[in-house]
Amino acid sequence: MAFITRLCCLQKMQTMAERVCDSRQSPSFARPANLRRMSSRVEATSPQAAEFKRLLEESGKNQMDAAAWLTRTVGRAIGNHTVSRWANGYTKIPVDVMDAMRSLVDREDAPAPAQHVSALTESGEDVPLFGYANAAGSVLRLNDDARIGVVPIHPSQRGSRSAFAFVVFGDSVAPMLNHGDVGYAIRNRPPRKGQPCLIELRDGETHVKLFNRTDERTLFADQLNPKKELTYALRDVVAIHAVVGVSFG
Hints:
This protein has about 250 residues and is of the alpha+beta class. It has two domains: about 40-110, Orthogonal Bundle (434 Repressor (Amino-terminal Domain)), CATH 1.10.260; about 125-245, Ribbon (Umud Fragment, subunit A), CATH 2.10.109.10. The protein is built from seven helices and nine strands, in the order αααααααβββββββββ. It has helices at about 1-25, 25-30, 35-40, 45-60, 65-75, 80-85, 95-110, and strands spanning about 125-135, 145-150, 165-170, 180-185, 195-200, 205-215, 220-225, 225-235, 235-245. A nine-stranded mixed beta sheet has the order 2-1-3-4-9-5-6-7-8. A hairpin with a 4-residue loop joins strand 5 (about 195-200) and strand 6. Helix 4 (about 45-60) runs parallel beside helix 7 (about 95-110) and helix 5 (about 65-75) crosses helix 6. The chain is elongated.
């Protein structure tokens, strides 16, 4: 009896082993998980993904800057991870995002619109000067109606067709920018952390602050007097202009 029981067990084990071998040789088991993941990247070679990647490179923006700009432009939160997936072809890119990226590159290739920030004069030696930038409550507006004159170009602005100057009012970012200083900026140039910048808002006001950082929804900036961190919803921000120089008035 014991022999028969042992024989039955051996037969069951052999049957199970044969089933395992058959399953490993079947087509459904032959496709490993990493192959399935790789297949989802086929879109990386699609015309849409290739165009998005090209537009991203031509815009000069990194993925973080592009995510923040797209969030403001299309009106919904877009993160760095999403931009990365679009650039690498993992997910389909929405039509409004592609249109926004195309318009961004087309606009940067063209001269700056006159109703926003004036371009340099024909001589290339002067830049337009705009009103007062009050860090406690801006009265500076970057349009031709607010232009009050011209000043000599700052060396850090040479080569840019979107350079301009402004008069500082208030001492909230002193001693970096003091009351009465003439600041020199370049339209839409991303500032570094701690660099003075002009924050242009949808309501027409422009604030002079020190750039800190951005995330998917918020711009963080600092002022020195009194010292505190300020926040701006990116949906309310039209543009950020890096301040590249200063001269005393």
